[in-house]
Write a structure and sequence with these properties.
The complex is a heterodimer. By secondary structure, chain A is mainly beta. Chain A contains one helix and 14 strands, in the order αββββββββββββββ. Classes of the chains: A mainly beta, B alpha/beta.
């Protein structure tokens, strides 16, 4: 049975047991390698440019995924994530099709995969500096809409896909308590495409729109909280300055160490 | 769109009003003109006199020419020798079509010439060079103040002194919203294959790309000696947004005059064939043919195919007061056949029906420019006329806007866009494509404004 993407999101979100994509929120075991499993939710809204930077619109995505992290030694961890993405590219204009289309049909669900790492390279007193990086690839899936109001039947089929990668230092203040605040400054690269195909009677055509985000720097503030000996909650809010404004990103999740 | 009253009362224009209905010879019509009484500016348009015009029955025009196609491999010199041996005169090869035009000698009928030539084994076919004519015939003449066909606000229009029509709001081709998207490109040329164009007319003086070609007099001056071509050209692409006159469908597109009919609005197939090919070879992206004949002819079809295969959109009027679609509009594979609707989105009574009809456009009381000499001194150089002749250039204008917006499209794609985006305005009586208006009355907005793909 196919579960609608929104319902799936609704079912999963109460669990909010995830850290997604942002590698290693919680401190490692001091006893060697540790495995953590978690799920989480992630959201971003980016200003994108397309048609050789002549056009601008928004792209947003909500990601829900399971994540597995391995901490090889304290301060060095890798993680893999996979899940469902709801990618929204409202505002794209496909003007090379026989009948031009302004896209406003909302989110298209598809699978995504991701990978990340964190590596601590400095620690002094309560100050800890790590390098963190992540990579997310939204595979894309097709969605079909009827073209209405024409003299003949027709439909449009859209397929969005995108890649996001980031890399940068994270500064944490380890007070020894359960709450650890941190700030991350990273370079953030977002690129994607949306292929739209159109069939209307004898007319047909397709157009692929390549997009990329306007901003390249992300500053995020977050905190992780050790809620039990094995469970860790984390949340993070990111700000992506760009020419003329700021984009945003949010993530939250829970991991459990076995 | 501007009107001639209301917003600009000081620019009220007087027009000679001609209602041209039905097929027929323009020259033989008993058209009368309206005289202007004193200064025009600020006058109530109803104060103008309007004369009656008598509708002329469509005349059958006899031909005295033949079209001959020789089998492949027959050399030009040999082919011409065959024709001259039969004493045929005015022998002329139509470049691109591979067809010869020839006139029957004095004392011989076309039928006799055909019978003789058919016995020649080198002749692939020989057919009468049928006659063409424009699709409008003068009728009762009045004038109005604005172009409901482009933007119909549903306000009553007084035409002359004794006709008032009550248009239905929205019964138009949605031009104003489409113009927000595109006004056309100056590089997109609409060839008006007709009686020529008045190239000095204020609506067209800056719109013609050249003096075109006159296939009637065989020179490079396609000046209109009728009025029909000027009217058609203006409907398609009159100078727009210039504080006077009318708006054309394709604001910025240019006009290429091609004269294939004479001062009486009559011509031969061979001239139309040459005109189509010449237009396709001389930069036209769209060809408008508000004329035609009753007979099928392979050379005429081949000319349309030639243009079509050069990615030129050929738009032709379906014809008026006839039982079926005229030629070349009936060449379904290569030509967009245009029927006519009126100011209420009703099918115009004169519009020829047939399965080849692709779309329709308003064709009743369509205002367009006319030569000053035609309307006479003291009159404003515009006429109101009716017929599928007026509907076709609206479609040609739309085709030019689509080509301007998306020059990479094929002629078939442009034609399909026009077909599929039409409004099925008679669906209550005939849902879907029908013989009266094809897919429906064209909708420029739907053809040019992006489709909003929503949830």
């Amino acid at each position: 049975m196919k579960i609608p993407a929104r319902r799936l999101l609704l079912l999963l979100s109460p669990a909010v047991a995830a850290v997604l994509l942002t590698a290693g929120f919680c401190p490692a075991s001091e006893n060697g390698a540790a495995w953590r499993t978690g799920i989480g939710i992630d959201y971003f809204s980016r200003t994108i440019t397309w048609d050789d930077n002549t056009r601008t619109s928004k792209a947003s995505a909500t990601l829900v995924a399971a994540r597995e992290e391995v901490e090889l030694r304290p301060g060095l961890a890798f993680d893999l994530a996979a899940g469902l993405s709801l990618s929204n590219f409202n505002g794209l204009a496909f003007s090379n099709l026989p009948i031009s289309i302004d896209y406003g049909a909302g989110a298209v669900s598809s699978l995504f995969v991701g990978a990340g790492f964190r590596a601590r390279f400095f620690r002094h007193g309560k100050l800890e500096i790590e390098g963190v990086g992540r990579f997310v690839y939204c595979l894309g899936s097709t969605k079909t809409w009827a073209l209405e109001g024409f003299a003949v039947e027709g439909h449009a089929t859209g397929r969005p896909s995108w890649i996001e990668a980031s890399l940068g230092p994270r500064i944490s203040l380890v007070f020894g308590g359960k709450l650890v605040p941190f700030v991350t400054i990273s370079g953030n690269w977002f690129s994607g495409s949306f292929k739209m195909a159109e069939t209307l009677g004898d007319l047909s055509g397709s157009e692929k729109k390549t997009v990329r985000a306007k901003g390249f720097v992300e500053v995020s503030l977050g905190a992780r909280c050790q809620v039990s000996k094995r469970a860790c909650l984390a949340a993070e809010a990111g700000f992506l300055p760009r020419a003329g404004g700021v984009d945003g990103a949010l993530s939250a999740g829970l991991t459990y160490r076995f | 769109m501007r009107s001639f009253s209301g917003k600009h009362p000081n620019q009220v224009m007087a027009f000679l009003v001609l209602l041209l209905l039905g097929l027929g010879a323009l020259g033989s019509s008993q058209q009368k003109t309206a005289k202007r009484n004193g200064p025009v500016r600020g006058r109530d348009p109803r104060a103008f006199k309007v004369a009656k015009a008598t509708r002329t029955p469509r005349a059958k025009l006899k031909t005295d020419r033949v079209l001959v196609k020789f089998k492949s491999g027959v050399e030009e010199g040999y082919a011409e020798a065959i024709l001259q041996f039969q004493d045929l005169v005015k022998v002329r090869r139509i470049p691109g079509a591979g067809v010869y035009r020839a006139q029957a000698p004095a004392g011989a009928t076309v039928r006799e010439v055909i019978a003789i030539l058919r016995q020649n084994p080198d002749v692939e076919y020989v057919r009468p060079d049928y006659r063409t004519r424009v699709f409008t015939v003068p009728n009762d003449t009045y004038f109005s103040t604005y172009q409901y066909n482009l933007y119909n606000r549903g306000k009553p229009i007084t035409i002359g002194s004794d006709i008032q029509i009550q248009p239905t709001s929205g019964a138009d081709i949605k031009a104003t919203t489409a113009w927000d998207q595109t006004k056309g490109d100056a590089g997109t040329i609409i060839a008006v294959v007709d009686t020529g164009v008045d190239m000095t007319h204020v609506e067209l003086v800056n719109k013609v790309v050249s003096a075109g070609h006159d296939f009637i007099n065989d020179d490079d001056d396609a000046t209109d000696d009728n009025f029909h071509g000027t009217w058609v050209a203006g409907v398609a692409a009159a100078e727009t947004n210039n504080n006077e006159g009318i708006a054309g469908v394709a604001w910025n597109c240019k006009v290429l005059p091609v004269k294939v009919m004479d001062a009486d609005g009559n011509g031969y197939y061979d001239e139309m064939i040459e005109g189509i090919i010449w237009a396709a070879d001389n930069g036209a992206k769209v060809i408008n043919i508000s004329a035609g004949g009753d007979a099928d002819d392979p050379a005429l079809e081949a000319a349309c195919q030639y243009a079509y295969e050069k990615n030129v959109v050929v738009v032709a009027a379906a014809g008026n007061d006839g039982p079926s679609v005229s030629y070349p509009a009936a060449y379904d594979n290569y030509v967009l056949a245009v029927g006519a609707t009126d100011f209420n989105d009703e099918v115009a009574s004169f519009s020829n029906p047939g399965p080849q009809v692709d779309v329709a456009a308003p064709g009743v009381w369509i205002l367009g420019p006319a030569p000053q000499w035609y309307v006479g001194t003291g009159y404003y150089p515009y006429v109101f006329a009716s017929g599928t002749s007026g509907a076709a250039p609206e479609v040609a204008g739309l085709a030019a806007l689509i080509v301007s917006q998306k020059p990479w499209l094929t002629a078939k794609q442009v034609m399909d866009i026009i077909r599929y985006t039409a409004d099925d305005v008679n669906k209550s009586s005939s849902s879907g494509k029908d013989d009266s208006i094809g897919y429906g009355r064209i909708n420029m907005e739907r053809a040019l404004v992006p489709y909003k793909l929503a949830r």
